[in-house]
Amino acid sequence: MENIEKGDLLNAHKHSFSNKDEILESAVCGCFHCIKIFRPNEITAWIEEISENMETAKCPFCGIDSVVGDKSGYPLTIDFLKSMHNAFFLDWLI
Question: What DSSP string describes 27-61?
Fold first, then answer.
């Protein structure tokens, strides 16, 4: 697995909420909960963020709001998504 900087993971995580515009501008998206890569048009559910007047993507495979688009500037590889998963779901980062 790639050696990815902790700061990169934290910054990439910021792209997983209030992200509808960025997701729709992306060619591909990835979920760091279920480690799936898919196209933005596969997303059918969004979480409305009332305080931000934005929407957050929900993964079309697992339904979790852990979606990042390639427009974020981060690599949507399986290794990167696994690193994100480990950081935010297995608690070694937070």
Answer: S-EEETTTTEEE-GGG---EEEETTTTEEEE--TT
